[in-house]
Write a structure and sequence with these properties.
- The structure is a single chain.
- The protein has 14 helices and 14 strands.
- The protein has 390 residues and is of the alpha/beta class.
- The strands form four sheets. A seven-stranded mixed sheet has the order 2-10-9-8-7-3-4, with helices on both faces. It has a three-stranded antiparallel sheet with strand order 11-14-13, with helices on one face.
- The mean pLDDT is 96.
- The structure holds pyridoxal-5'-phosphate.
Length: 390
């Protein structure tokens, strides 16, 4: 049996949290408890901190040798094969500064204004922002909440593709933010089938792939078949699973050959370049970080159930279904009949949640809560939202 809390995830000093300079704990002032943006409250893995210290100890923050590979595409390929059985050629990847940048670059090379893109809602807000700035029509496929959880409707995608000749792309965020859905292989096979029938490019955001709870299994959509891979751009990063968003690094596997050649032919400065600290941190994460990651996933698994128990006890009117993946809880406040949106009510009660409407109109009456924190903090958050404690 593994030790229950080897990295002391429950020992979070709230004064330390309130002093953190990042957006999550800084933006809304010292009185608030913060469960909004998707950063974990924990320090990065000790192996990552050690590696970063080592970079500083060497005393060289000059140019890395850009004629050499960062080594990260090779580590990414090895990791995808080892964890998910997906074999990819590292030379088919491009490194970016973040996932949304990669998405935007791909949109700019694959669409013209007025083309359409389909994606599931509720959804991570920067997707909509990216589509809007690329002047794309959005086909929002609404997720349905059933007795068995959130359902993804491939038929709606098929109908949309059949009736809209300008539909060029389907974006698949899996695992999904904010519902925490981890799509099954058969659901992914269906999406690939529609993409093949209607010649759609698939853009897969798989940044939450490491954060799937048993019995769920992450299946990279590009691993479904060589044909699927050849029409898929898969974007990933170490930033969610290892809590490194501030280091700005992501990677994309560009399956379609022509697109890959086009992107690789762009001037290198267009995408920026990986920074030395990010290279060190991601290398440590992907070579030595798995013990920490496994412990984090165990802790998050326990937290997602704890959140359910606390809501049942203190605020049973809130609808909650434990996510299959991610550390994000998608909470349904609609039965309360509040005039204000739940994040506004929560804010007045001293908790910052992410507004449901940011995830699309379908999110009205909902809010997203981040439970990557200590058990004690989750309890304080729930009690505050429920007004069980001043
Ligand atoms: C689904 C999804 N994609 C992308 C990101 C952000 O990635 P990046 O900071 O690399 O743009 C997040 C952050 O929470 C996310 O949840």
């Amino acid at each position: 049996m593994p030790e229950p809390d080897p990295f002391h995830f429950d020992d979070l000093d709230s004064q330390w949290l309130h002093r953190k300079p990042g957006a999550k704990w800084h933006r809304y002032g010292p009185e608030q408890l913060n469960a909004w943006v998707a950063d974990m409250d924990w320090r990065p893995a000790p192996v990552i901190v050690d590696r970063l210290r080592h970079v500083l100890d060497r005393g060289d923050l000059g140019y890395p040798d850009w004629e050499e590979s960062t080594g990260l595409p090779e580590l990414f390929a090895a990791r995808m094969e080892q964890r998910f059985g997906w074999r990819l050629d590292p030379s088919e990847t491009i490194e970016f500064n973040d996932v949304v940048q990669a998405l935007q670059v791909v949109l700019r090379h694959t669409t013209t204004p007025g083309d359409a893109i389909a994606y599931h809602v509720p959804s991570y807000p920067p997707f909509h922002d990216s589509f809007e700035t690329a002047h794309l029509d959005e086909i929002r496929l609404e997720a349905r909440l059933t007795e068995d959880g959130w359902r993804w409707d491939a038929d709606a995608l098929r109908v949309a593709a059949g009736s809209n000749p300008r539909l060029k792309i389907v974006l698949v965020c899996n695992p999904q933010n904010p519902t925490g859905r981890c799509l099954t292989r058969s659901e992914l096979v269906e999406i690939v089938a529609v993409a093949e029938e209607h010649d759609l490019l698939i853009i897969a955001d798989e940044i939450h792939a490491d954060l799937v709870y048993e019995p769920g299994v992450h299946v990279p959509i590009a691993s479904i078949s060589p044909a699927a891979a050849s029409r898929t751009v898969t974007i990933n990063a170490a930033s969610k699973s290892f809590n490194l968003a501030g280091l700005r690094w992501a990677i994309a596997h560009i399956g379609p050959q022509t697109l890959r050649e086009t992107l690789k032919a762009q001037p290198v400065h267009l995408y920026g370049a990986a920074n030395m600290m990010a290279i060190a941190a991601v290398t440590a994460a992907w070579t030595e970080g798995d013990e920490w990651l496994a412990a984090v996933v165990r802790k998050l698994d326990s937290n997602r159930h704890l959140l359910g128990e606390l809501l049942t006890k203190h605020f049973p009117e809130v609808g909650y279904r434990a996510p299959e993946a991610t550390y994000l809880a998608w909470l349904d406040f609609r039965s309360l009949g509040w005039e204000d949106e739940p994040d506004e009510v929560a804010r007045r009660r001293g908790v910052e949640l992410f507004a449901g409407t940011k995830f699309g109109e379908i999110g009205r009456g909902w809010a997203r809560l981040n439970f990557a924190t200590s058990a004690e903090m989750i309890e304080r958050i729930v009690k505050r939202i429920a007004r069980r404690m001043p």
